[in-house]
Amino acid sequence: MEKLARKQVQALTPYMSARRIGGSGDIWLNANESPFDNEYKTDFARLNRYSECQPKALIEAYASYAGVEANQTLTSRGADEGIELLIRAFCEPGEDSILYCPPTYGMYAISAETIGVERKVVPLTADWQLDLPTIEANLDTVKLVFVCSPNNPTGNLVNRDDIITLLEMTKDKAIVVMDEAYIDFCPEASTADLLADYPNLAILRTLSKAFALAGLRCGFTLANAPLINVLLKVIAPYPVPVPVADIAIQALSESGLARAKYQVLDLNANRAYLQAGLSMLPGVLVHEGWGNYLLVEFTNGDELFKATWDNGIILRNSPIENCVRISVGNREECEKTLAFIRNQINQSAA
Questions:
Q1: Which residues carry this modification: N6-(pyridoxal phosphate)lysine (predicted)?
Q2: Are residues 128 and 105 in the same domain?
Q3: Within a domain: residue 68?
Q4: What's the gap between Cα 113 and its chain centre?
């Protein structure tokens, strides 16, 4: 079967998600999931019928939440499907390219490689911002430029002025895809308002993080109607199961939005608690984060990661040297994680 696969697929290394990596423990702070297990009810009716391609109530609810029009909103199976739809719709395999800026989310590259689309890489600058001159020099054949803000795994925000410069630079040439999976933790930094001026902007959103619905697999793409209409040509006929739409609509109701806002405030407070506590430890550098996670640099990150892993605290190893990404959990999880790391560092220093 391996030999029958396309050459690109044979050579492909799959994205190592937190669940694929696994682990065994009581504290799971490796996948940027919410610690809140909210309760929803659905009657599981109408399962003998296909769902709408774009459920009207769901589209209108999310458009209202995001501050855009319904015709600027498309829902999909997580933001990951949004990435694939954009590449499939706009990139000709063997001809066009995507451009992305590591360290960042790995699925941009894997989705392109799976489809046979070339990947151009322009690393972020030393302060994890866009290298605009190098991006401009590499735009030939590029149809999509992926920018993640807050960026995963670094946690920082990309400068808004640089995003606008990039949008101007790519006008009539390429689409800038802003991955805003974590924007609910800092909504003031959203680029949704720029849709009014830039037809070459697409924004990825999800209910997985702030809405505590990672298991639901419900995401959104925001863009102007002409771009959305292109995506509708390539999306699956029934991308959103009936129970998924039902639960997502509940999450986006007035009471659901109030709950999400409260939980975001709680997680932001826990992030500040973790950041303050870790920053007091010798040899530890906590990078400022705007999502529900922190990138933390240790004297020996691999050693610290293994120690927590072996003791049932599952964090995420980072491709950045000596760095570990720590999701923000509930207060008890944060306290236990901080205490364990403190003890480890004290023992190492003794």
A1: 209
A2: yes
A3: yes
A4: 19
- Would residue 349 count as lying in a domain? no
pTM of the model: 0.95
From first to last of its 350 residues, the chain has per-residue pLDDT tens of 777 787 777 777 776 666 677 778 899 999 999 999 999 999 888 899 999 999 999 999 999 999 999 999 999 999 999 999 999 999 999 999 999 999 999 999 999 999 999 999 999 999 999 999 999 999 999 999 999 999 999 999 999 999 999 999 999 999 999 999 999 999 999 999 999 999 999 999 999 999 999 999 999 999 999 999 999 999 999 999 999 999 999 999 999 999 999 999 999 999 999 999 999 999 999 999 999 999 999 999 999 999 999 999 999 999 999 999 999 999 999 999 999 999 999 887 76
Report the amino acid identity of residue 164.
I
CATH number at residue 304: 3.90.1150.10
Q: In this structure, is residue 43 part of a structural domain?
A: no
Number of domains into which the chain is organized: 2
Rounded to whole angstroms, what are the CA distances from 60 to 67, 193, 220, 253, 263? 10, 17, 12, 11, 23
Query: Is 231 inside a domain boundary?
Result: yes
Same domain, 136 and 209: yes
Question: Distance between CA atoms of 186 and 209, rounded to whole angstroms?
Answer: 12
